[in-house]
Amino acid sequence: MWEEILLGWPRDIVALRLAHFTNFYSGDAHRLRDSIARVLPLWEAAEPAYPHVLAMWAFGLEESGDYARAEEAGRRAVELDPANIWAVHAVAHVMEMQGRAAEGLAWIDDTEPAWAECNNFAYHVWWHRALFHLERGEHDAVLEGYDRQFRADAESEDYLDMSNAIAMLWRLELEGVDVGARWRELADKSEGRIGDHVLAFIDVHWAMALAADGRRAALDRMLATMAAAAAADTSQAPIYRRVGSALCEGLIAYRAGDPETAVERLLPIRYDVATIGGSHAQRDVVHQTLIAAALAAGRDCLARALLAERVAARPNSLPTWLRYAACLDRLGDGAALAAAGARARAAELRAS
Fold it and tell me: Of 167, 191, 217, 275, which residue has the fewest beta carbons closer than 10 angstroms?
């Protein structure tokens, strides 16, 4: 509907923003990009809304993998409007995808005074700051950011605030970090939402919180209502059938200590995960869990292959290099030289 409106009224900023969100929540990066490309030539830099259009363009470019142009557009939007948090966020995404953690931390620190008081989307940018710390192995800084910034409002049940917190705790535990009792309040709130089934992306996070807190009965109820949602006549039903249910089952199995089942559920759908919506950065927790499950299941050849993909895509990721080195070690002497090279790369990153 929004795209049809934009054909006749391409300068309708409300329709443009809603189209942007619709494409984002469908996980369609090309539509996210092209929706803005169709109207961008009709906007002038002097117009008040132009930085917002440019910020959406930057984010669409980033999600489509066009990182150089995304960063250029995002930085230009921030020059025009330093408080434009969507543009700050788009550039942070570029830096996260390229493994530029030190630059990402500096970017958020430098721009923060202009947007820190904007609204709860500041929590999400602070979540990105924590991602940069996580990539650098700075776990104490991640927990400090969790408690003082993006989960400081522990009463919030907003889905984005919740998914920020849930995904970060999950990632920390994949790194072997003790997160204490932080899961409890997230699981309490998630349990009250298990029948909503508005968006598969959200349901995945509710399932993660419930699984992490060991709430098996609530998970059983959630999977049952999800099966009903998959059979309904809604736009999300095909997503639940194709990806959502298997994704939740895989994540639940991993937390239940059944990594083989986790691999069986997650591996066949890994190229379809984008259909649940969200960004590459948000969905990355699924791919990290698949790698962890493969390692835990003794599927070392699969883990090696997945980690080789990951170090190629994220050559500056310290946690990835450390896992890759450990996996290569487990495969025996034939991989020793490669393991040594991976260790050297990890050490280089740790020192940077």
Answer: 217
How far apart are alpha carbons 226 and 244 in whole angstroms?
A: 9
Q: Which residue has the tokens 């349990």?
A: 191
Q: For residue 333, what pLDDT band results from cuts at 50, 70 and 90?
A: low
- List the structure tokens of 84: 């434009």
- Report the C-alpha gap between 241 and 236 in whole angstroms: 9
Proportion of the chain in helix, strand, coil states, percent, rounded to 5: 75, 0, 25
Tokens, residue 121: 């989307």
Q: Average pLDDT, stretch 313-321? A: 85
DSSP per-residue string spanning 123-168? HHHHHHHHHHHHHTT-HHHHHHHIIIIITS-TT---HHHHHHHHHH
Question: Crossing angle, helix 85-97 and helix 67-80, to 10 degrees?
Answer: 150
Kindly state the helix (H) or strand (E) to which residue 118 belongs, with its residue range: none
Distance CA 141, CA 309 (A): 28
Mean pLDDT of the chain: 93
Token code pair at residue 297:
């299941």
Q: Which two tokens stand for residue 88?
A: 């700050």
Transcribe 304-332 into DSSP letters: HHHHHHHHHH-TT-HHHHHHHHHHHHHT-
Which pLDDT score, from 0 to 100, does residue 337 have? 60
Contact by Cβ (8 Å): 195, 225: yes
48-83 pLDDT tens trace: 999 999 999 999 999 999 999 999 999 999 999 999
For residues 293 and 8, what is the distance between their CA atoms, to the nearest angstrom?
Answer: 49
